[in-house]
Design a protein that fits this description.
The structure holds two protein chains of two kinds. Chain A is an alpha+beta fold. Helices cover 39% and strands 20% of the residues of chain A. In chain B, helix 5 packs parallel to helix 7 and helix 13 packs parallel to helix 15. The chains are: A alpha+beta, B alpha/beta. Chain A: This is Circadian clock protein KaiB.
Chain lengths: 122, 503
């Protein structure tokens, strides 16, 4: 079984931060039912953690498990990119797409996001 | 109204160009092409803070890792690790993490970076902050408009922290727009440009303060160099003020007849230019100048760019002057270097260091012409101005030799634009007379003193230079076309001008 361990870093409870938290909760609920742990860390309260993790921008979502470690930045409003960034493969998803278009599209998005990830995808 | 204070950077020469330092509590943008020295200046700003003022610094790196920067500046003699251990320096590493793809999924901000900078500034009690470089952060993230807004927010945050900051930025052309991504428009009221221009096959580095909002600075480009164990050294030539006092104390040229021609010797704090064709006695006169100093217990520094130590010693002993004994007595130091070993700026700084270390009463440079080959006209002129003003500032005597291109005559006293800044000019010339090569000498200029205007014949033997009588029946020596003048005509001319000989 695959357990997702996710940490979301924010700086203060800004509208952007709240949006990221809400987006993450929604995506996890839709895509990773019960298979995740999620923690929100406010760097205003714990700047040391920001230094340790070398966070530059917020919100930053770090997928600690399963490997490989991934960083996803932004308010997570682009669901498709979040899903592909988290390496949530269609095989693990509950509702397997029949069209096939979406699978290709998400694959493309992952490639665009990072050339290096393309090998893992293939 | 609040005036803007300046924070002395401590970078040699830069505080003259900036009229006292960087605007305190503000951000200054350092813009330059690749390899122009931006990262060195950013690091040096913090290093000088630690070393000269006991101020702590934070270095934020967007491009190279902290380890790379520590390693790269170690060659400049900066032990960053020791500063870190002493709690005087800390890095904020914002470089991209290797092998880790970043996925962008919407809007973001630099909040985490600002929080980390605040933490670092607090931790070491920093007053100085350096960010290197803004271009790298634009490369790291895709949304340039977000980064632009966020860098503005960062600059505001730095102001609130009360730190004096340097940000570096890349530019594409030496004389194009200020920086890539138009960063100067939103991050800084203050802009300094570093240039690294190829000029007649030589690299010429310059620094220019483009703007300091609300405060003054020197205008134009000033050359600088990067010295091992020292870092950036700016040479603020045109900012040097003519503030030297001039003394009436005379020193001996080392040759009694020449002293008499000069009205009693050179002035103690004067620059003497010695011009002549190859082999006509410049090195001999330099040797006598040194011997004259040593015999009076003065310290002499000989900077040779044409001949080796050994050759110079052999030459001197041929004229009965024992350089080796002078050196053993601690009154002479010979530094012989090839002009080509480094750039003129580096030579200038090396010479300054040698003068500061040895603390001589006399400095001789043999020859300036060898150095002239090294640089553009402008670069050479700046070198000569820098050297003469430094020597005059220390109130010591300087003798520079210049080689003329032609054997006879000599058009080139004024070239190199150096004649106007020297106090005395002595010409040595070959004179062709009735099928024989003779040597002639004249004191062309002697600032602040009457002098003998004759063109005198001189000879050289095993004891040195002997100045004889004037060429009375010859004219056109300096023009290179000596002509015999009948004695009767000469008498007529003298009667016409009533010129008393010997003044």
């Amino acid at each position: 079984m695959s357990n997702y361990k996710l940490r979301l870093y924010i700086t203060g409870h800004t509208a952007q931060a709240e949006r990221a938290v809400a987006n993450l909760k929604r995506i996890c609920a839709e895509e990773l039912q019960g298979r995740y742990e999620m923690e929100v860390i406010d760097l205003v309260e714990d700047p040391e953690e920001g230094e340790r993790q070398r966070i530059v921008v917020t919100p930053t979502l770090i997928k600690q498990l399963p490997p490989p470690l991934r960083r996803i930045i932004g308010d997570l409003s682009d669901k498709q990119r979040v899903v592909s960034g988290l390496d949530v493969f269609p095989a693990f998803r509950d509702e397997v797409d029949t069209s096939g278009d979406e699978i290709d599209a998400s694959g493309e998005a992952a490639k665009k996001a990072s050339g290096k990830a393309s090998e893992d995808d293939s | 109204m609040l005036t803007i204070e300046k924070l002395p950077s401590g970078v040699p020469g830069l505080d003259i160009v900036t009229d006292g330092g960087l605007p305190q509590g503000r951000t200054t943008l350092i813009s330059g092409t690749a390899g122009s020295g931006k990262t060195i200046l950013a690091a040096q700003f913090l290093v000088e803070g630690v070393q000269k003022f006991g101020e702590s610094g934070v270095f934020i790196t967007f491009e190279e890792s902290a380890a790379d920067i520590r390693h790269n500046v170690a060659s400049l003699g900066w032990d960053i690790e020791a500063f870190e251990a002493a709690g005087k320096w800390t890095f904020v590493d914002a470089a991209p993490q290797p092998g880790e793809p970043v996925v962008e999924t919407g809007d973001y901000d630099l909040g985490a970076l600002i929080v980390r900078i605040e933490l670092a500034v607090q931790r070491v009690g920093a007053t100085r902050v350096a960010l290197d470089s803004l271009g790298a952060i634009f490369n790291q993230f895709q949304n340039a408009s977000i980064i632009r807004n966020e860098l503005f927010r960062l600059a505001v945050a730095l102001k609130q922290m009360g730190v004096t900051a340097i940000m570096t930025a890349e530019r594409d052309d030496e004389y194009g727009r200020i920086a890539r991504h138009g960063v100067e428009e939103f991050v800084a009221d203050n802009v300094i440009v570093l240039r690294n221009v190829l000029e007649t096959e030589k690299r010429r580095r310059t620094v220019e303060v483009l703007k300091f909002r609300g405060t003054t600075h020197q205008k134009g480009e000033y050359p600088f160099t990067v010295m091992p164990d020292e870092g950036i050294v700016v040479i603020p030539l045109s900012a040097i003020k003519l503030k030297q006092r001039s003394s009436n104390v005379r020193i001996s040229s080392g040759n009694t007849e020449l002293d008499a021609m000069c009205g009693g010797g050179f002035f103690r704090d004067s620059i003497i230019l010695l011009s002549g064709a190859t082999g006509c006695g410049k090195t001999l006169m330099t040797t006598e100048f040194i011997a004259g100093g040593v015999s009076r217990g003065e310290r002499c520094l000989l900077l040779a760019f044409e001949e080796s130590r050994h050759q110079l010693m052999r030459n001197a002993s041929g004229w009965g002057r024992d350089f080796e004994a002078y050196e053993q007595a601690g009154l002479l130091e010979i530094i012989a270097t090839y002009p080509e070993t480094c750039g003129l700026e580096d030579h200038l700084i090396a010479i300054k260091h040698a003068i500061e270390r040895f603390d001589p009463n006399r400095v001789a440079v043999d020859s300036l012409s060898a150095l002239e080959r090294m640089a553009s006209v402008k670069g050479f002129r700046e070198f000569v101005i820098g050297l003469t003003s430094f020597i005059k500032d220390r109130e010591i005597a300087g003798l520079f030799t210049v080689t003329t291109d032609t054997l006879l005559g000599g058009e080139s006293v004024t070239d190199g634009h150096i004649s106007t800044i020297t106090d005395s000019i002595i010409l040595l010339r070959y004179v062709e007379m009735l099928g024989e090569m003779k040597r002639g000498l004249t004191v062309l200029k002697m600032r602040g003193s009457p002098h003998n205007k004759d063109i005198r014949e001189f000879s050289i033997d095993g004891t040195g230079m002997h100045i004889g009588r004037a060429f009375r029946s010859i004219s056109g020596i300096l023009a290179g076309h000596p002509q015999h003048v009948p004695p009767r005509e000469l008498e007529r001319m003298e009667a016409l001008f009533q010129d008393t000989p010997g003044t």
